[in-house]
Predict the 3D structure of the following.
Amino acid sequence: MLAHPEESLLIDGRALSDLRQGVTLEVIGEDSMGPLSPEMKRLMVQRQADVKFPVDWTTLGEYLDGLEKRGISPNVAAFVGAGTVRVNVLGERDVQPTPAQLEEMRKLVHQAMEDGAMGVTTALIYAPNAYAWRNEELTYIANTIMAGCSLQGRAFATQEAWDAAAAVCNLGLENWSFNAARPAMRLIASRKHYIMPMHG
């Protein structure tokens, strides 16, 4: 369950195209709307096409606060994207993080979790996400979300899927899967931004 209304909700929070089909929960965050570096914010504005909006937030929490202040019809649950965190620290290049950069990435994931992210998503079939060394980078990020959160991923090559799963399981996440619904539901009740109330 994943949608991409991150930008359209900024323009029209009614989300009528989904509501008319009975969709009342938007799960977002394959490429999350934070944390953003100054360069990411600049590129987000530069790459806008039909939908134009100011990028007046930096963290995932600030983005969610902005949605709440604007008023939106659907409920929203957000994940932080591993690729977003990677680009924040390393840019869009095919490089590997140093130990210091891994620590910076871990802190960004931790902050996003504190801001209300349900867990971490990956999209390892796309660049620059595909540049991550599975057993190092994903394990390090997963270490941040061990307190009952979930790691969700888009399907990618079979061997890479096993490598990523092994990396997470090595941390003791015995029940990890691509869609760990139960841990996510536990957190919905305990963090402020997981579900925003419907308006009207």
Summary: The chain has one domain: 8-188.
